[in-house]
Here is the input.
Amino acid sequence: MKVSIIGASGYTGVELIRYLSFHKDVEIFQLISRQFSGKKLSSVYPHFTKTPYEDLIFEEEVDLDSGDVYFLCLPHEPSVELVKKLADKGKKVIDLSAAYRIKNKDKYPEYYGFEHRYGELLEKAVYGLPEIFRSDIEKAGVVANPGCYPTATLLALYPVIKEDVIDTDTVVVNALSGISGAGRGMKQQFHYPEAHSNAYAYNPVKHRHIPEMEDIIKRVSGKEIKVRFTPHIIPVSRGMISTVIFETNLKREQLVELYRLEYRYEPFIRIASVPPQIKNVAGSNFCDIYVDLDERTGQAVIISAIDNLGKGASSQAVQNMNIMVGIPEDKYLKDISGSSILFP
Amino acid sequence: MKVSIIGASGYTGVELIRYLSFHKDVEIFQLISRQFSGKKLSSVYPHFTKTPYEDLIFEEEVDLDSGDVYFLCLPHEPSVELVKKLADKGKKVIDLSAAYRIKNKDKYPEYYGFEHRYGELLEKAVYGLPEIFRSDIEKAGVVANPGCYPTATLLALYPVIKEDVIDTDTVVVNALSGISGAGRGMKQQFHYPEAHSNAYAYNPVKHRHIPEMEDIIKRVSGKEIKVRFTPHIIPVSRGMISTVIFETNLKREQLVELYRLEYRYEPFIRIASVPPQIKNVAGSNFCDIYVDLDERTGQAVIISAIDNLGKGASSQAVQNMNIMVGIPEDKYLKDISGSSILFP
Amino acid sequence: MKVSIIGASGYTGVELIRYLSFHKDVEIFQLISRQFSGKKLSSVYPHFTKTPYEDLIFEEEVDLDSGDVYFLCLPHEPSVELVKKLADKGKKVIDLSAAYRIKNKDKYPEYYGFEHRYGELLEKAVYGLPEIFRSDIEKAGVVANPGCYPTATLLALYPVIKEDVIDTDTVVVNALSGISGAGRGMKQQFHYPEAHSNAYAYNPVKHRHIPEMEDIIKRVSGKEIKVRFTPHIIPVSRGMISTVIFETNLKREQLVELYRLEYRYEPFIRIASVPPQIKNVAGSNFCDIYVDLDERTGQAVIISAIDNLGKGASSQAVQNMNIMVGIPEDKYLKDISGSSILFP
Amino acid sequence: MKVSIIGASGYTGVELIRYLSFHKDVEIFQLISRQFSGKKLSSVYPHFTKTPYEDLIFEEEVDLDSGDVYFLCLPHEPSVELVKKLADKGKKVIDLSAAYRIKNKDKYPEYYGFEHRYGELLEKAVYGLPEIFRSDIEKAGVVANPGCYPTATLLALYPVIKEDVIDTDTVVVNALSGISGAGRGMKQQFHYPEAHSNAYAYNPVKHRHIPEMEDIIKRVSGKEIKVRFTPHIIPVSRGMISTVIFETNLKREQLVELYRLEYRYEPFIRIASVPPQIKNVAGSNFCDIYVDLDERTGQAVIISAIDNLGKGASSQAVQNMNIMVGIPEDKYLKDISGSSILFP
Here is the structure.
C-alpha cells in the first residue's frame, strides 16, 4: 500500500511517520513539505538517521496518481481543494484538518473564515471517529479525522448521548491541552521561558471545535445539546484531559455499567478506575475514560485522557486507514507506546 | 511586632518567612519545626545563607507567651488545640489549616476525620478572605486563613453571590493546581520522572474544600448553592486556575461591570482583559480575574488565577496580619514578585 | 525464547518490558518484583491495559530453570549471588547492575561497600558494550550490562583509546543525567517542586562509575588513563550528555575521520554534525556522537548523547541479548523511538 | 537618583525593573523600547498591573540629559555608539552588552563581527565584576557589566588566579545555562515542545565569552591561561552552573581555605559545603561556590552557581550602580529572592 503524507514536516506529519514506521503493510512513497522541499527527512529531524526512513526526501509537488492513501496535514483552507482533487481521482483520503468535519457548511465562514465550496463532498465525507462511525469509515473515500478536543470529549459523551440519558440541554466541558496542539509554529507564549510553569484558559467562549462537537452530538442523539467549552493550555508537550459535566437520572453504578458495556470490545478505549493520567496515553492511540457521579449535585463527571497527537490526530488517522483498507483496526498500533521529535 | 511561625519548614512556612523578610515591622522571634529542631534555617534551606535570617534556629517548643502574632502551618487536627490555647491567652492567631474555617462543625468528621471540640471558638473565628470579611478580620483574634481552591473560587464568585445573580443552584468549578499544593511530603506521583509532563483530575466528587466554599457562599448569598468541583494537578510548582461556570440573566457588559465595580479599590484583585496566566501571579499576593459570558449557552465563565502558596496561603496570611494589627493592608506585599525554595 | 525479568517494577525493568513488547522472538515468562508480588502488571502500570502484556503477574520467587535468558534489574549486592546461581545452571544472564562489571574485585569494597566473592565468574563475565566487546558477547554466558555514564563516555572515547592518540594521562569528563538515572525511589531533591528548574553537580570527585570507565580504558588502550569525572543532574526525566576533553596531536579532520571509520558499520552509533541533543536519542538505543577539536588549546572535545534508560540500560540489554542468542543485533530495536511510564 | 533603562522590554531589562522596584533611592524616569514604544509597561507585562510601575510608558527616544544612571540592555553593536554619547556627556553608564568588556579591541571583529571604533573609551571602561574590580568601579563612568558565563567562571577562578596556584596553561570549563540566557527572541529550538526535556552542548569550541574570560584571567594573574570552554543548554528558564577544572599543587584544605579567606567579607559570595544548586541562587544576586580537589588526578574542581539574569546580568548591574554612586553595595539587593515575567 503506497501512502503519501502531505504537510509532513509539522508535528502531526512527523507523528504519522513515526506511527507508520511500525506499519509493515505500508510504504511511504512521498513526503510533501513546502518548507523543507528538497531536504532529507533525517537532515530536518536527525532522530531518523540510521532508520529505514533516513533517506526519504521532502518534496514540493503532490503526486496525485501514484498513491493508495493520502494523509493531509495541512491548514484548513488549502485542504478543501486538495481533498476534492484527490476524491475526484477516487483516492482514499484522510484529512487531518477541519475542512470536511462539519456537515453544516455555514459554520465555516463563522468559525474558520472561509466559504466552503464543496457541499456535496462535505456531505459524503465520513467523520473519522471509529468508535461511533466505524461502518461508515469502512466504505469511505474521504475521512475527516477529528479534532483533538472533539475526540476526547465525544468519546467521553458517546454512551450517554447514544442512550439519551443527559437531562439538560448543555454539557459543561473543561479541557487541558499540551502545547503541541498549537503546532510547530513559534509564538511568544510558547517560548520556553514563558511557557514552562505557566497555565491559562484561552478562547473561553468561542473555540472552533464547538460546532464540530455539537454537530456529532446532534447526529448521535438527535438532540440539540450545547457544549459550554473552556480549553486550557498546560505546560506539557502532548496530552489532553477532557472533564465533562452534565445532569442525569442514572445512578453511579448504572452510568459506569453503561460505559463498560458500550466500550467493552473497543481496542483503544479503556475504562479507568481512577481519573486518567496523561502519562498513560501519551505516545499511544489509547483513550482512557473515568466515569463518576456526584450524588450531592446529581451531576455526572466523565474524564477522558488522550494524546492530542495520537488518538487526537496521527494514530487515529492510522486507525482510520486500517479500517478503510480492511486491515485489522489495531494492527501495528497496539504495541506502540512512545514518542517522537517532541519527546522527551 | 514579634511573630512566630509554627510548622515553619514546610512550603507554606518557608513562603511565610520569605514574605516576612520584606516586612520591616516584623521580627520573627521563633520558628517551630519538629523535623528540623535545633538546626539553623540556612542549613536546611541554604538560600537563606548571608541573609538577615541566616541564623534563625528551628525550635521544638512553642513559646506561647512572647509573641504578638502566631502563624500556624500545621496539619488540621493539631491546629485545633493549639489555636485554642493561643486564643485563650489572647494572642492573635492566623491559622493556615482548615481547623477553624467551617462554621458547621459537623462537617469535620465527614471531611477531615476528626470531631471538632471547640464549637464556640469556631463560631468566633473569622474566615480570612479580606475582600469579603475585611471588617471582621480587623477585630478578629483568630483568623482561619482560607484554602487555596476556596480563595481562587470565592473571589471569582463574590460579586455574583453578593448581588444574587446566579440563576441555578449549582456552580461548576474546574480548577488546576500546582504540585506544591500537596506539600513537601514525598509521594510516588510527585517523583519528578512521573510528575513532569503529566496531568490528571483527582478527588473528582468529594474534595475537602467543597464544604468550605459552600459555607461561605451561603453566608454571603443566603442561598444553598452547591459547588460541583473537579480539581486537577498540572506540572507546575505553584499556581492555580479556577474556572467557574454558572447561569445568569445578566448580559456580558453588566457582568464585567459588576466585577469592575466590586473590586475597583481592592489592592490585590486585578480584572484582566484576557484569561489570566499563572506566571502573572506566581510569587505574589495578586488574584487576576477574567469575566465573560457565553451568549450561546447563557452561562457566565469566570476565570481566576492565584499563586496557591501566595494569595492561596502565605501572602494572604500576611495580608490578614496587616489588617489585624492595623498596618496598611498592602504594606510590604505589593513590591514582591518572586520566588523561594520552590523556584525556579 | 523464554525470558525472565527480575526486578521488573523499577524503571529499567519497565523499560525492558517496553522494548521486549516489540520483540517477536521473545516470550516474557516471568516478571519478578517483591514489592508488587501478586499484582497484575497493568494494575501497577495502567498503560499496559489492553496490551498483550496486560495480564502478566508480578511474582516473588525466581524460576531458575524454565528460562532461556534472565535479565537482572536488581541492586548490586543481591545480583552477585543470583547471577552466580543462574550461571551455574548454564543460563544466559544479562545483569544490569554493577555486580560483574569491574574485573578488579578489590574495587567493590571501596566503591560498592561489599566484598565480591566470585572472582572467577567476575573474570569470565563479559562487559556488555557491543561496540567494543561484540565477539566476546556472542560467546558469553554472563553479560555485565554497562552503566549509563560509562556507556556514553566509553563510546565517546573508544576510537581514540583504541588508536592510542590521547596525549595525556587524564581525560576530563563532564556529564549531564536525567533524574530517572537515580531510579524510582523517592528522595526530597526529586520531589517535583524542588527538582523542576533545578540543576547541580553531585559526587564531584568520587563516583562509582569511575573504576568501571578506567578499567575498560585500560583494557582497550593498555594504558592507565584517569577519568576526572563530574556528573550533573538536570531536570529531564531521561537522557544523558557526556562531554569528554583530552589532548591529542591529531588534527580536527583526522579525528573526525577516525570516528567515522570506526563506527561506520555500527547500527546504533551516529556521528552528528552538530552537538547531539537528548531529544534525538530518548526512548531509543542510539548513541549520537559529535567530534571536534579546539585548535586554540589543542584539545579534543567529544560529546555523546544517549538515553540513560535506553543505550544506557534496557535497550542495550536487548542488544546484548540479540547478540548472545544469534539474532541480528538490531532486530526489533531500530524502529522503536518512544517512551514509557516515564513519559511524557 | 534618576535612572533610565534602554532596551527595557527584553529579559534583562524587565529583570532590572524588578530589582529596581525594591530600590527606594531610585526613580525610573524612562524606559526605552523600540518594539513597544508608546505602550504601557503593564499592557506588555501584565504582572506590573496595580504596582507602582503600572503606568510607566515605553518610549522610543533616549533622553540623554535628564538621567543620572543609564542601563543599556541593547545588542552589542548599537551599544558601542550610545555608550560613547552618554560617556561624552559625563553620565554614569552600565552597559549590559559586551561592547566595552574586552580591552583588546581586535577581538571584536573576530568574535562579534564589527570593528570597535572607540579604543580609548574601551580602555577607560571598567569591567563590572565587583569582587575583582570594586575600587575601579567606584570611580568609573562606564561600567561594562560582565557576561553570565564569565561571571560564574571568573568568580570560581579568582582566588586561584590571584594567588597564581594553577599549574597548567589551560583550564577546562563546562557550563550549563538556562534558556533565558538566549533572550526573548523566538527560535525553533526554544519552542516549548522541543525545548522541554532536552539538553545539548553548543558552540563547543568558539564562544564569544572566551576572550572575555581570558582577558580578565590575564589581567589578574599576569599569565596567558587558555579557557577550554563548553557551554550546554538545559531546560530551565534561568540559572547557570560553571564547573571548572585545573591542576594545582595545593591540597584540598588549602584550596578550600583560600576561597573562604578571599570571599569572607563578600556580601554575595557564599562558599557551599556541597555542589551548589540553581534553586538557591535563582532570582537573586548570590553566587554559590563549591571547592574540591580530586586527589586521584591532582585536579581541582570548582563549581559555581548563579542566576544568569541575576548576578549574571541585572542584579549585578544594580550592585555596580550602588558602588558607582556610593550607596552600600548590597542595599535593596539582599532581601530579594524571587522572580519575574519568567517565573514560575
User: Anything to note?
Assistant: Chain D touches chain C at residues 170, 172, 174, 176, 194, 197-202, 204-205, 226, 228, 230, 232, 234-237, 239, 241, 243, 245, 275-279, 282, 290, 292-297, 299, 301, 303, 305, 344 (CB under 8 Å). The first helix of chain D runs from residue 11 to 20.
